[in-house]
Amino acid sequence: MSLFVREKPFYRAFISLTLIIGLQNLITFGVNLSDNLMIGGYSEAALSGVALANQIQFLLQMLVMGTCEGVVILSARAWGAGQIQTVKQAAAIGMWIAMLLSVLMWAVVFFAPHAVLSVFTGDEAVIAEGARYLRIICFSYLFFAATSILLAMLRSVETVKIGFVVSLSTLIINICLNYVLIYGKWGFPELGIRGSAIATLSARMLETLIVIGFVKRFDDKILLRFRELLRINQPLLRQYLRIGSPILMSNTIWGAAMAAQTAILGHMGAAAIAANSIATTVFQIVTVITYASASATSVVIGKTIGQGRMEKVKPYAKTLQLLYVAIGLVTSVLLFVSKGYVLQFYSISGEAKELALRFMTVLAVTVIGTAYQMPALTGIVRSGGDTKFVLYNDTIFMWLVVLPSSALAAFVWNLPPLAVFICLKSDQILKCFVALVKVNRFRWIRSFERAA
Predict the structure, then answer these.
(1) Which positions, given as ranges, span the membrane (predicted)?
(2) Residue 152 lies in a domain
């Protein structure tokens, strides 16, 4: 059997979905990068404050994205089987869950910003800046949740260009408002970090309006009526919880683990916080195709199973793994080559710049592992129906390997930030061996009745 399938529709579907979702992700992360660059040019304390506040945003993103993945898995199969009503019902379930999570997160952040930020660092200047940002940005959580679910619904039926349009609009609005509100240009007051928060909130509100307008007037596949989002199909809810709850739990654990990682580095000083923020933001920018490949895989594999073409799933999975490795190698080179240029845009201390440079060198190596194992597990295995495995795998690696070793390195052995950072990213390589075995044993292919 050839390592690569010879079907143009397969490559056309995977590549087109990956590129368009990748462009959308690129612009989405471009919003974070514009915040980092403009705030980084304002003050290091403000940059560190935004970095910590964004950890709360990241946890919400993981929760909402976990909800979205459950929607996509159910809806992609329904789309393959021609069951449009199921797509609508899955979106309704996802919307209720995502909105509930965002309201809870808003309440915690709005009423106790100092308490939340003090978990990450003891630097009062950084906490004060982060609290100013959080009290405004938390109002964007509801808009982000609604937009994400609607885009997930559209993505599951292979409508992805609207996501690019939405992200591009957000980026343009965010950059313009950042410029005038942070620094007080064109007659606007100089608001500093609060200006950045207002800019992002405004952009999130706009993107929600754009998606609603598209669904209402231009979508010709789902034909959703928004009152349909108010009704919950109980049998499908039980199915969603069986399939989606392990994904939501996995993403929750992952988001909490990322917050713990930031807390570990945060207690090593403001320079480590700033360096980690820069390195992580650049990493997110250059890995947009990697994360897009996982989303594209969920649609391609889910649709194939929904169509009943089970004989195609194995060859597709083998070919996809080779494509992941190629993506990882290209991404590694791009990250390594670009690391020096990016730092020129930041007004931070020499210590922070040196740390950021070293952190990005580490990421240039581990990104190859990320590019393979992440889409293999969250794309292939999850969309195949085995949604519990990633939960178990992430829990073991993160909470029994990565975090304990990193905490020991930082607080017991008193190793430098670079050594701690290597410990924090070690799982990206270790998980590759697990993914290789799991995917190629093909025991993850399950029907809805056996899923989860």
Answers:
(1) 12-33, 58-79, 91-113, 133-152, 164-184, 196-215, 252-275, 281-301, 322-343, 355-377, 389-412
(2) yes
User: Could you report the per-residue pLDDT of 186-241, keeping only the tens digit for each?
Assistant: 777 777 778 888 888 888 898 899 999 999 989 889 988 988 988 899 999 998 88
**pTM to 2 decimals?**
0.77
CB 193 within 8 A of CB 126: no
- Length of the chain (residues): 452
* Number of folded domains that form the chain: 1
Q: How far apart are CA 91 and CA 154, in angstroms?
A: 9
* Residue 451 located in a structural domain: no
Is residue 357 one of the residues assigned to a domain? yes
Q: In 107-154, at which residue ranges do the beta strands (DSSP E only) sit?
A: none
Residue 82, sorted as left (phi over 0), alpha (psi -120 to 50) or beta, turns out to be left
Contact 41, 290 (CB under 8 A): no
Distance of CA 230 to the CA centre of its chain: 27
Cα 121 from Cα 262, distance rounded (Å):
9
pLDDT digit string, tens, across residues 56-72? 777 788 889 889 988 98
**Full 3-state SS string of 312-342:** HHHHHHHHHHHHHHHHHHHHHHHHHHHHHHH
Q: Does position 372 have pLDDT exceeding 90, yes or no?
A: yes
Q: Is the dihedral of CA 380, 381, 382, 386 positive or negative?
A: positive
In a domain, residue 2? The reply is no
As given in the structure block, the two tokens for residue 430 are 């270790």
* 103-151 pLDDT, tens digit each: 999 999 889 888 888 877 677 777 887 888 888 888 999 999 999 999 9
Phi, psi values for residue 49, rounded to 5°: -65, -45
**CA-to-CA separations, 393 to 108, 256, 396, 401, 441, in angstroms, rounded:** 29, 15, 5, 11, 16
Give the domain range for residue 224.
8-441
Query: Is residue 264 within 8 Å of 120, Cβ to Cβ?
Result: no
